[in-house]
Amino acid sequence: MTSTPLSGTAGGLRLTLDGVSLGRPGAPVLTGLDLDVTPGEILTVVGPSGCGKSTLLRTLAGLLPPLDGSVTQDGTRLHGPGAERSLVFQEDALLPWRTVRGNVELPLAIAGTSRAERRAHAERWLDRVGLTGRGTAWPHRLSGGQRQRVQLARALAARPRALLMDEPFGALDARTRAQMQDLLVDVLTGTGATVLFVTHDVDEALFLGDRVALIGAGRLLDVSTVPHPRDRSARTRPETAALRRDILDSLST
Amino acid sequence: MTSPSDTTTPPARTAEADVPDRAPRSDEPESRTPKSRGTESKSRAPNSRTPAARYALRALSLLVALGLWQVLTAYDVAVWLRFGQFPTVTDVASAFGARLTGGGPYWQDLADSLTRIVTGFLLAAVLGVATGTALARSRVAADVLGPLVEVLRPVPAIALVPVAILLFPSNEQGIVFITCAAAFFPVTVATRHAVRALNPVWEEAVRTLGGGRSRLLFSVLLPGALPGVLGGLSTGVGVSWICVISAEMISGEYGVGYRTWQDYTVVDYPGVFVGMVTIGLLGWLTSTAVEVLGRRLTRWLPRTEGAARA
């Protein structure tokens, strides 16, 4: 694998769920789910806690087989996890016995990149997420926000075609969270990766997403197109405010 | 050991700035505030000493014990406990000196015992980590090996002497077998628990990055279980010593345990004590080696400053 450019040109994956039921055997949390995530889009998923957002993401990651229906990527059925779909966790999922750089190098090592190359590549990714010079630190020396930056770098280092994010900024304070959203938008440019971003924060969903999927009561309630994605000033525009009100209304019922 | 800062820092700062991993609420560049020297020296905790003072205290502790021993034995004290037949410290010291300078036999015994314990213990470490990991991760292994391990575990390794005599062509191999059996169970059990207790998110992270089974084993299971495994290794090296010495006493040809028992049978009590001191020092040496190695391998563990130095 050649890794000179940070961003790949492989393009995003199309992820399709067709009549899917998810959850533990005997206790489905989501049923009759039809969803088509188009290549390269950012689809945000909102819903109350416990509605099955994370279950949906774990299924797409390949960690959890669907109970029913079919889950496909570019038309072929999913079989377990794969490097082309990387998952960013809400909790700290860095390996504490690897340095910051060691964590970012991990997917490259798995892909068989040479030692020198993965080191240089990881350093560039750390620069990109604003952690220049922290490569040799142990993860526990970093703050929560910094660790999520490392997770982001690790998830993107091997140029996945889909990025699955499970409330990655959920545990951060408001200011850090906004910084991380901007950082995410920045690092995604040029990757072409399809992004599925789960959050319980409607504003976050409306800022990041091209489309917003709304989940509640064990099913997919609605998928709406966001009028002005990734535009902070759009928050006050009437069409965004209307969509925001609609979503909040659906969530509260 | 409590560090000076623990007792003198205001609680508010300790909670926020010094422990970023406990308070993951800020994206600020990490701010490890330097310890405020002023307050530290002013209200110094009574148990915070310089390293030199602590080593002096440790040496003093040993010296006082030796002094007490000397007094009790030199004056043949007999207050219910009888020290009349007991060799004095000076007797033991001169016997020790004679052995150390006496060339061959003492060093031969030392080398024999060390070879046996290192061989047995290393075998036990490898087998124990492998078995413990298999027990924790594979249902087949848990069903096939689990009952065997549970049934054999309560049998004291030294009770395996008859088995060793029946099984192995030479005493040497039998002793290594017993030493290995002694350390095997603590290592196995510690590994099994440590592997089971791993945070599943690490495994899921590596799997979603495309990692396969061997990657999981070497990048997640083994390094993640290491802190727990080290506990088993420490216990293991201790029981290994007990068993290598006992086995040498029963069936050995040479070795510190054999020599100690020989000295006893010829009523050379200072010699017996030389053996005991030797065993004590060797045990201390090997457990320190395990400890130091363990600390080097787990530098990544979050530690409070000061707690790392024992």
UniProtKB/TrEMBL annotation, chain A:
SMART domains xref list: AAA
UniProt keyword annotations, A-Z: ATP-binding, Nucleotide-binding, Transport
Name of the featured protein: ATP-binding cassette domain-containing protein
Nucleotide-binding keyword on record: yes
Annotated ranges, domain ABC transporter: 15-242
Organism classification: Bacteria, Bacillati, Actinomycetota, Actinomycetes, Kitasatosporales
Species this chain originates from: Streptomyces boluensis
Keyword Transport set for record: yes
GO molecular function: ATP binding; ATP hydrolysis activity
TrEMBL record, chain B:
Membrane-traversing stretches: 52-72, 117-136, 148-168, 174-195, 216-249, 269-293
Annotated segments matching region Disordered: 1-50
A single Gene Ontology CC term: plasma membrane
Stretches with biased composition (Polar residues): 1-11
Membrane topology: Multi-pass membrane protein
GO BP term (any one): transmembrane transport
Subcellular location: Cell membrane
Domain ABC transmembrane type-1: 110-294
PROSITE patterns with a match to the protein in the record: ABC_TM1
Keyword terms of this UniProt record: Cell membrane, Membrane, Transmembrane, Transmembrane helix, Transport
Keyword Chloroplast attached: no
The keyword Ligase appears for this protein: no
Alphabetized InterPro entries for the sequence: MetI-like (IPR000515), MetI-like_sf (IPR035906)
Biased amino acid composition, Basic and acidic residues: 15-43
A Pfam family: BPD_transp_1
PANTHER family, alphabetized: ABC TRANSPORTER PERMEASE PROTEIN MJ0413-RELATED, ALKANE SULFONATE ABC TRANSPORTER-RELATED, MEMBRANE SUBUNIT
Family that this chain belongs to: Belongs to the binding-protein-dependent transport system permease family.
Annotated protein name in UniProt: ABC transporter permease subunit
Lineage: Bacteria, Bacillati, Actinomycetota, Actinomycetes, Kitasatosporales
